[in-house]
Amino acid sequence: MMATRPPPKGGIGLNRLDRMKGHLEKLNQDPKFKRRAASVLIVFYLVTAYFGIRYLRDTKHKATGEPSPYKSLDDVEDVVGIPSARDTTEIYDSLAQDYDKKIRMEEFLSTIWLKRRRVMKNVSGDVLEVACGTGRNIPYFRPDNVSSITFLDPSLPMLQVAKEKFEDKYPKYEKVQFVKGRAEDLIDITSNSGQKFDTIYESFGLCSHEDPEKALKNFTQLLRPGGKIVLLEHGRSDKESLNERLDKRAAARFKEWGCRWNLDIDQIVQNSGLEIIDQKRYHFGTTYFYILKQKTN
Predict the structure, then answer these.
(1) Domain for residue 1, yes or no?
(2) Residue 272's domain is classified under what CATH number?
(3) Domain of 116?
(4) Which phi and psi (to 5°) does residue 280 adopt?
(5) What pLDDT, on a 0 to 100 scale, did the predictor assign at position 60?
C-alpha cells in the first residue's frame, strides 16, 4: 500500500492566498468599492497630515524657543465643569481672521459640513441667522428658497468676514442685511422695525451665548405664525464617560473658542416651551439637530 504524500508545506496557505487575490480582484472591479477605498485613503491621509503638521509645528517651537501657538491646560484655570457664563464677543473678535482656517479641518473630518447642509435645506421665507460668525453656512445657502436673509452676530470682525463671503458668492442677491448684536438683545434690536421671520436658524451658537435660554425665548417671540427654528448645536453627550472628558476640557475649550461645549442643550430646548418637530443627535450624542415651532394652544 502506497503512503499518501502529505501536501506540500505551505500549500494550504498558498490556496488561501490565491482565493484572497481572486476576491480582491473582483472587489477592484466594483466601482463602489473603488470609491469607498479612495474615500478611506483620503480621510486617512488628511488625518495623518493634520496631526503630522501640528506635531512638526510644536517641535519647531520647542527647538527654537518660540512661544507655541497652541494653548496648554497649564494656561487655563484648573476648573472641571461648565464654565461660568459671560459675554464672549472679545474672543470672537480675536478669532475672526483665522477662524475658518482653524476650524476647517475639524469640521471636515467630523462631517459637520453635512449637518450644515441639512440646516440650510430647512430654511425658507424671510430668515434670520443668529450667531452667523464668519458665515460657514453660506456655501449651502439656497437663494431660491429665501425671500430675505438677515445675518446677526455680536462680533463685528466676524460679521465683516461673513459679509465679504456672501457678497462674493451671491453678488446679485439684494434682500440681505448684516446686523451687529447679541441674541439676548434681539427684542430690543427689532423693536423699531417690528420685523418677524419665517425661519430663525443658528449653528453652534447656544454654547457661546451668555444666556442661551433667553436667546431661544427671543427667537420664539420673533417667529411669524407657522414659523420654525432650526438649530445645530453641540453639548453634553448621552454617555457619561464622554461627559467627564468634556467637563475636564471645558475651561480650555472656552478660553480658546469661546464656547461652553458641555451645556445640556436638550434641557435648554425643553425649558424653552417650544414644540419639537424633528430632532437628531450625532457624534455620540454631542451634536444636536432640532426643528422647533411654537406650541399651539
Answers:
(1) no
(2) 3.40.50.150
(3) 88-294
(4) -145, 155
(5) 47
Q: Beta-strand (E) ranges in 60-160? A: 125-130, 146-153
The answer to whether 151 and 177 are in contact (CB under 8 A) is yes
Question: Is residue 16 situated within a structural domain?
Answer: no
Cell of 91: 474672543
Residue 145 CB burial class (10 angstroms; 0-12, 13-18, ≥19)? middle
Q: Are 120 and 256 in the same domain?
A: yes
User: What does the angle CA 253 – CA 50 – CA 243 come to, to the nearest 5 degrees?
Assistant: 30
112-121 helix and 99-109 helix, angle to the nearest 10 degrees: 90
Q: Number of structural domains, the chain?
A: 2
Q: How high is the mean pLDDT in each 10-residue block of the chain (297 residues)?
A: 54 64 63 60 58 51 51 45 93 96 93 97 98 97 97 98 97 96 95 93 96 96 96 95 94 94 96 95 96 89
Q: How far is CA 68 from CA 72, 75, 100, 188, 214, in A?
A: 9, 12, 20, 42, 38
Domain co-membership, 37 together with 117 = no
